[in-house]
Amino acid sequence: VLSTAVDALTAFVRCFLSPDAANSGILLQPVMVYLSRALSYISTIAAKELPNIKPAMDIFIIRTLIAYQSLPDPVSYKSDHPQLIKLCTTPYRDASACEESSCLRLLLDKRDAWLGPWIPGRDWFEDELCAFQGGKDGLMPCVWENEVSSFPQPETIKKTLVNQMLLCFGIMFASQHSSGMLSLLGIIEQCLKAGKKQSWHAASVTNICVGLLAGLKALLNLRPQTLGSEVLNSIQAIFLSILAEGDICASQR
Q1: How far apart are the first and last CA of the chain?
Q2: Distance of alpha carbon 25 from alpha carbon 41, whole angstroms
Q3: DSSP at 227
Q4: Cis peptide before 141, with omega less than 30 degrees from 0?
Q5: How far is residue 187's CA from residue 173's CA, in Å, rounded to a whole number?
Q6: DSSP 3-state assignment of 67?
Q7: Which DSSP string do the residues of 173-188 spell out, in sequence order?
Q8: What is the largest distance, in Å, between two alpha-carbon atoms of the chain?
Q9: Rounded CA gap, 193 and 52, in Å?
Q10: Is 47 helix (H, G, I), strand (E, B) or coil?
């Protein structure tokens, strides 16, 4: 029920709120209150570590993160940033427990598709078929969604959860000042160093690539001014460190 309610809020935001709307502030306030309470509820339940409700909570977290991403201006929920950052850095702070993201293909520029490793299909349907992974516990589409997948339950809940965490991480990264960005990059660097000899390292590298790309794309939309050299150098150092490993897959390269 809670997940459906948050999903309805997302539909409302997408239909009636835009950065240019004169009444967006008035309409946004109750939405922000509901989402902030949802985030607090997530934090409270997560602290209790109740395994029997984890599947339902994962869906609730997914819906909540999607709702936050649909808001036009991340500054409007700045007070929620610390909780969101804690939640969305889970793939880096607890990398061994997280799935490998499937968002890399989505974030890469389609104009570079000829570089591989994903060769574009003849049309959008073939592209969607090639990207389909399937999952018996995947999210079912809602009746008010504008863009419904041609294939039901295209991904597992765990993979969808990681995807939404990393996409939201990108928005959080782009919304921070330089010191905040460097702090988040430090978490990523620590994850990259800690997992080099672990079985989950390849999945972790993909998640790092997704988080950084999501952050860079969000920066283009949110920040007209250029980044400081320290932040850019840190991002470059992470990418160079990944390339230097040698055993990365084609999509990560």
Answers
A1: 42
A2: 24
A3: P
A4: no
A5: 12
A6: helix
A7: HHTS-HHHHHHHHHHH
A8: 54
A9: 33
A10: helix
Retrieve residue 249's tokens. 């897959």
Q: Tell which residue, 175, 174, 169, has the closest CA to residue 188.
A: 169
**Could you tell me if 67 and 45 are in contact, meaning their C-beta atoms sit under 8 angstroms apart?**
no
CA gap 226, 111 in Å, rounded: 24
Supply φ then ψ for residue 27, to 5 degrees: -70, -30
The closest alpha carbon to 140, from 130, 151, 131, 129, belongs to 151
Q: Are 238 and 185 in contact (CB under 8 A)?
A: yes
Residue 32: how many other CB atoms lie within 10 Å = 16
Instruction: Taking each helix axis as running N to C, give the angle between helix 157-174 and helix 201-222, from 0 to 180 degrees, rounded to the nearest 10.
Output: 40
Beta-carbon contacts of residue 224 (< 8 Å; ≥ 6 apart): none
**217 in Cβ contact with 107 (< 8 Å):** yes
- Tell me the whole-structure pTM to 2 decimals: 0.82
For residue 206 the two structure tokens come to 């993909």
- Spell out the per-residue pLDDT of the chain, length 253, in tens: 677 778 777 777 777 665 555 555 567 788 888 889 989 888 888 777 777 788 888 888 999 999 899 888 898 899 999 999 999 999 999 999 999 998 887 787 666 655 555 556 666 666 666 666 666 666 666 655 666 666 665 678 899 999 999 999 999 999 999 999 999 999 999 999 887 888 888 899 999 999 999 999 999 888 766 778 899 999 999 999 888 876 666 666 6
SS3 231: helix
Cβ-contact 153, 140 below 8 angstroms: yes
